Amino acid sequence: MRENIEPAIANRSVTVGRAYQAQYRTPPEDYARVLRAPAINAEPCLPPRGPAAGTGRVVSDGKGVRMLPPSLQGEILSRGDLVDLRVAEDETFTGSYVISRDGTLKLPYLDPIPAQGRAPAEVVTDIRDGLVASDFYVETPPVSLLLTDFAAVRVAVSGAVFEPGAKDIGAVAGAEADALRRVAFGASTEGRNLSVALRSAGGIRPDADLSAVEIRRAGAVWRVDLRDGFAGGAFDDVMLVAGDEIVVPSRQCFQDELMVPGPFSPPGITLFMSSLTVPATSNSQAAIGRDVREVQWGTRFMQAVVDNNCVGGIRATSANRAAALLSRNPATGVSVVIERDIEEMLDRPDRDDYDPYLLPGDAIACYDSTVTNVADLGRVLGTVAAVAAID
Length: 391
Hints:
InterPro entries: Poly_export, Poly_export_N. With 391 residues, the protein is α+β, with helices and mostly antiparallel strands. The protein contains nine helices and 17 strands. Strands 2-1-11-10-12-8-9 form a seven-stranded mixed beta sheet, with helices on one face. 32% of the residues are buried. Mean pLDDT is 80; it is low at 1-6, 371-378 and 384-388.
């Protein structure tokens, strides 16, 4: 093997599965009959904070489980939204308005009307009451309030996501809208949904607790159960408004079942890769990018090794290659380096137990076989000898 040429890469605290995922642990010499990695990963799991599985599409406000409240349903207004107000046969109040920075709708001669985080129908009720209370009308007039364009909103996402922080989501670009949409009444967007905010934050981590994702708005805290959505079922993709805070709690364990593409998972993984010298002498000739390559969420280490042209070739010279993975625990920030003998992994019937899932920002390096290393050493010595003979 390679021990006589260069030192082996040391694994860091992963021998018995204490790292972020049990698949990092060092393979034993004997083969296991039962795959143990998922069970090892599940051992430290905290119980879900949300309702019992199968309860349905519900949320909790800390006072028990209830159905989705009106403040989290349907179209919700946010500051910067463009609305079309029409009061029957009245040119004074009819017109286009933008929800102000303070979250209110300001109409001529009326006190500002709260609009942030409310449905248009709720605001319409206040407009009608305001027109009557200000003596503009004796009887309640017909009033229509339609959304014309959604503004971008800035929300904060924290917890078990890969890229926490403030995120700008939403906005319907007028330049991209077709002519019919620009003159039509009403507006719709999926760009301000909870799922968009989670993907904008790099997607959920494998330790995320989807049963109790928190939405904090105007002093209220709601916990939303998103498990059905990840499993392919229906879920309430809440529309967010400016200033919302999203917190994804952690179950303190790696959940193998979350390593599949879903509405909240990372859109993909950017890998940093270094290829072999043989059979390719450069990343370009190895058909990989100069620095990185994109792979699907849920890709395993050995799949990327194959993708990096580190497998195959002439057995006599290309066997006994090795590959190293540099990863970082997203929960603690501690890095880990593991090394796998490629041919051994291909032969192992329990390879999935020691074949880690890739995470965003992982790096892979491939090493040539001993035969290749010796051959390269021979070429170097031959070159040195030829130079010495010329001198």
